[in-house]
Fold Conserved oligomeric Golgi complex subunit 7.
Amino acid sequence: MDHSGEDSLHTALSLLQTLGELLLVLEENDSMFSDFVKTCGKKLNQEGVPLSCCKTFYLEPQPLQRLETLLKQCTQNERFCYLSPTIVVALELNSNIQHSINVTLMSPIHQQINQLGSREWADIISGSGLTEDLPEFGLAPMEYITQIGQYLMMLPQHLEPFVLQENRGLTRALSEHSFPHGQLPDPDHPETGQHQSSATDFLLGCVATACASALSDAILRIESVGPKGAKQLAADIDYLGNIFEDLGLVLPASLMELAELFRAAAASILLSDVASFKSAICGKDHRLVAAVRSITNLPSSD
């Protein structure tokens, strides 16, 4: 991420934090106003209280009608929100800011992943000197995936100024679950959601999950690869898995399955025997199996 991107990210996160603080104030004031209205409602209808006896003298018909309507709404709905119009606007802005942050964080990743399956990518594989019978340990990850790995490893440093545990505003803003691939624990059910301890952990987890999803989608859009390309894709996925492990994250099962399937498909093609692929598909997602078979032009094992 360049300096302009980092500055934009910090500005957006600061704005998100301020918006979260605003939401906290609005919700606190709404609660106070609710208590005040309930107290007034009781006095308004309490016998012997001057306000209840002479309310028509204190209020004109229209204001009195609006007050009674408000009290009725409050009575019928315990969770009635008096500041709802303002809160709705704030939540909409919150969602827009989180979307912008996600676009900023994912932009460097998409720039690299977009190379996958391109003619340049295919030319690199075909002209790399990689032989079809090269063992797995001889494969090096391609530049696009190493660039992604380096970016993910540096991301905590870019997010370091924002700590979720000590930042109520950012916590409140992120708790709306607007950020793609992220969910904070429910305060009433802490066993659910992602248990990241900081904004860095939360956002890093979201970006990593989105990265894995984007990589999987890009791989499945590839039209065709030979044994060399299949081995290379497996090596690239393995590299990303190592990056995830270093960051304390877990690579999605779908990507791990893709790596196994591409590795098995390459072996089956080289041996002219689908037995390797047939044994590898046991328990795998049938959609991934069909996709890898199509991408590698592997004949059906039936």
User: Anything to note?
Assistant: Residues 185-196 have pLDDT under 50 and may be disordered. Residues 114-162+198-295 form one domain. The radius of gyration is 28 Å. The chain has two domains: 4-84, 114-162+198-295.
